[in-house]
Amino acid sequence: MTETVESLFDKGLERYKAGEAASELIPVFKEVCDRAPKSSAAWTCLAWLYLLENKYNLAYKAALKATKLNPQDPQARVNLAIAMLETKQKGLRQHVELAQQLIFVNSEWEEEIKKSIEDGFSRKPDWQSLTKVKKWIFEES
Question: Which residues, including other chains, have CB under 8 Å from residue 37's CB and lie 6 or more apart?
């Protein structure tokens, strides 16, 4: 019997929170995205995993898809901004500003983004692009 997409997603998230390596989870989230291509949450997670694995072009594509599916997702915007920075693309300011606006109106989202950033640094301590995006989001507001 095949696992449901929701179950696969939830188990992947649990494995990530338990500290499993991003490289091990990329295939799980790729499968979720293949089976549920309109799931912005799955694309957002996949983008984050790609960022952790230094697969910036793939991260950019996944984050772009996530923001198109859900333009109001601050994590997708943060992922896209980091991927754009890593791939030296222009136009990331609008994504940073939108993420700022979104977390300004929703304190839960702000907490989620802060936790995500902490998690990013715990898995990739000297992540320069994450440092810049964090500074832009939280120190320019």
Answer: none
